[in-house]
Amino acid sequence: MIRITKLKTGIGAVAILFIVLVAVGFKIYRDKLYVNLPDYPPINRAAWLDQNWSQQQREWFHHADQGTQTVNIPYEWFVALEQPRLALVGDVGRLSDPSYLDRFGFIPGATKGGENQLPVGFARGGPMSKWDGTSWVNPQTNDPMTSLGFTCAACHTGRLTYKHVTLLIDGGPALTDLGKFRQALGISVLFTRFVPGRFDRFAKNVLGEDAGDDAKKALRDQLAGVWNGFFNVVRKLDQGIADASVDEGYGRLDALNRIGNQVFGVDLGKEGQEKNYSPTNAPVNFPHIWNASWFDWVQYNASIEQPMVRNAGEALGVSALVDLTDASKGLFKSGVQVSIIDEIEKQLAGKQATAENGFSGLKPPKDKESGFTGLKSPKWPENILGPIDRALAAKGATLYDNLCKDCHLPPVDTREFWQSKNWLPANEFGQRFLHVEVILITKIGTDPVHAEGMAKRKVWVPTDLNISTNDFGFALGQLVEKTTNHWYDSQTPPVSEDKRNEMNGYRPNGIQAPLGYKARPLNGVWATPPYLHNGSVPNLYALLSPVSERPKSFYLGRREFDPFCVGYQLRTKVPGPDKPDLRCLGDQSSSADDAFEGGFELKTAILGNRNTGHEFNDGSSAGVIGRKLSVDERLSLIEFLKTQ
Q1: Which one, of 597, 90, 524, lies nearest residue 288 by Cα?
Q2: Which of 90, 268, 344, 390 is 20 to 30 Å apart from 14, CA to CA?
Q3: How confident is the model over 579-625, as pLDDT tens digits?
């Protein structure tokens, strides 16, 4: 009897221990190893809006290789990895499945020859190099492996869904969550190493059916090296700054700080990682890029002048390899595809405007189809989103003229815009560019972290790089210029001075860090939600409302567009147009009553996420830029902006 009691007690203890271990394991999986993604409804059709690009130009832009290795594993591995989910038996589906990547926000690519292409924004490049400069090879065949990286289109292709139709917008802000994608990729690699059965399936897909034991062991060693090297290093670095960082979520990225962390942190090795890896606390909405080629300064904080430095810096920031540590191999040697970056910029810009050709491309338009000659802003598709109320828009035009024109310039389809004094005189190369006003933070009142962060950030730079400053922005500008100059010099023959000037966009490597944000023209603004530089305002109606009325939190990741408020829907059940405040502003306290599973709740009380400023309200407090607008005036101005 005593023995039976003891036996039962022992079994009970084991059972309790088992339950505890399962519960702990589930909590670890749920909190650390589970990627929570939205489930989106099926789409009946997709429509690319006409923006002055041919289908061939569009598809080239979507996959043009900048020389990046963003995923930090070969293409052949990427298509063989399984999704970061656990199952009792068998394959859980490929990470590269277009329908799975779509849940991170990546737009499925075209189908050719019955096969799904890579999503928009992914580029399959040439032979892949490791971080130590050696080449990746397949252990079974000894063939070189292929690089896989992001293109401009990964962050600058927008989408809006309305009644089961997806509108796709070249140059618009992407609705991707790159943080979740990085998390999923890392977990997939981790599971491939340790989850029973996964490595064998992975090896079969990478090496082939007849791979030998030596090849499998070499592949396993490669996999361990990737995890213990880049993935684990970056994971620990990110953990070290997590408490001071601000979560980004769908459609946002702290791009400048992340570029700095890659170049001055990861690329400079251990010492750079210890001294330069900075919190990512200034997320910004992916900017729309039509017409940006003609602006005198770009980035939200108007910090970069030269398009080549801007674009090559972006490529370095998404893991184009560059040698910053080994002078014997040639400092500043990189994988950046400078010639491709030049082609991308020219396709975006359209015809160069010079004195010799009468500034073709910058003439006052005779109709609404002329003007800018490169990528154009999208026009409101009335056949899908509904007709524009022209009478209401006419009232809004008067409001725009009185309240908006001084900062954002006249509408781009008017002679007044093309004859504006903001078109600068021709420079020494006969080029004209548009001066875009920078509004100081003290006046505009929007969240200051993005502008202040660049102005204040310092970096450690080794002396052999011969960079003359430790101010982050200026040091980055010099480093990128040295990288592009290395490419120019290494060509056979070296690129001529005239050609360099052309590829540099006929502009110097100007860097500045003003404590303000630029006010660009508003053509196509209807297609660029959410609003303000940090994406903290969900729709145009909220942007035209006092700060106290704007939602204090809302979910990013929703794709369904609201053509009345002009932005992504705030909630699943949408009130009618007779309740504009309820429909467009919610309850001004929380959106928790309509949570979006798998989305990202943006809380505007957090510094970096603040939705203050650019306010139309009574009084003259900081950030108030115009008088309070009535509901009818807000709706009139919105209707006018649909015409732009």
Answers
A1: 524
A2: 90
A3: 999 999 987 655 545 889 999 999 999 999 999 999 999 988 889 99
Query: Could you check whether the bond before residue 530 is cis, i.e. omega within 30 degrees of 0?
Result: yes
Tell me the whole-structure pTM to 2 decimals. Answer: 0.92
Which range has the worst mean pLDDT, 133-137, 172-176, 396-400, 544-548? 133-137
Residue 194 to residue 204: CA distance in whole angstroms: 16
What per-residue confidence (pLDDT) applies to 135? 86
Residues 75 and 220 in one domain: yes
Task: Provide the number of structural domains found in the chain.
Answer: 4
Mean pLDDT of 200-204: 96
52 and 158 co-located in one domain: yes
Residue 61 forms part of a structural domain: yes
Cis peptide before 283 (omega within 30 of 0): no
User: Is the CB of residue 626 less than 8 Å from the CB of residue 405?
Assistant: no
Q: Kindly report, residue by residue over 330-367, the tens digit of the pLDDT.
A: 899 999 999 999 999 999 999 754 444 444 555 544 54
Residue 438 Cα distances to 44, 74, 353, 476, 510, angstroms: 42, 42, 24, 21, 15
Q: Is residue 385 part of a domain?
A: no
Closest CA to 82 of 98, 96, 99, 94: 94
Distance between CA atoms of residues 257 and 263, nearest Å: 10
Q: Which amino acid is at 147?
A: S
Decide if 252 contacts 292 (C-beta within 8 A).
Answer: no
Nearest to 383 by CA among 511, 173, 563: 563
Whether 529 is covered by a domain: the verdict is: no
Residue 21 has pLDDT above 50, yes or no: no
Q: Is the Cα torsion angle 425, 429, 430, 436 positive or negative in sign?
A: negative
SS3 state at 123? strand
Q: How far apart, in Å, do the first and last CA atoms of the chain sit?
A: 87
Asked if residue 52 lies in contact with residue 376, where contact means CB atoms within 8 angstroms, the answer is: yes
User: Is 18 a residue whose pLDDT tops 70?
Assistant: no
CA angle 558, 560, 561 (to 5 degrees): 115
Q: Is 175 part of any domain? A: yes
Instruction: Report the pLDDT averaged over residues 305-318.
Output: 97
Q: What is the mean pLDDT of residues 242-264?
A: 97
Residue type, 175: L
Three-state secondary-structure class, residue 206:
helix
573's tokens: 């059940």
